[in-house]
């Protein structure tokens, strides 16, 4: 499969999903399905970008 070729050529690969799982669990699931090793850092889920906003948790912010 193409994913194996990408991995063999050391081409960076990221997996994006709109699921609300945990990155490490999704990485395990994808690894089992595809027969390759996927690190949690290669998985971007629906909530992943929000991790950069932790400092604003429980604070009032204006979003426009």
TrEMBL record:
It comes from the Eukaryota. Transmembrane segments: none annotated. Pfam families: Hydrolase_6. Signal peptide: none annotated. This is Uncharacterized protein. The lineage of its organism: Eukaryota, Metazoa, Spiralia, Gnathifera, Rotifera.
């Amino acid at each position: 499969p193409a994913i194996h070729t990408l991995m063999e050529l050391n081409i960076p690969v990221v997996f994006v999903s709109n699921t609300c799982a945990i990155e490490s669990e999704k990485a395990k699931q994808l690894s089992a399905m595809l027969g390759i090793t996927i690190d949690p850092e290669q998985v971007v889920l629906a909530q992943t970008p929000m991790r950069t906003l932790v400092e604003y948790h429980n604070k009032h912010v204006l979003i426009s």
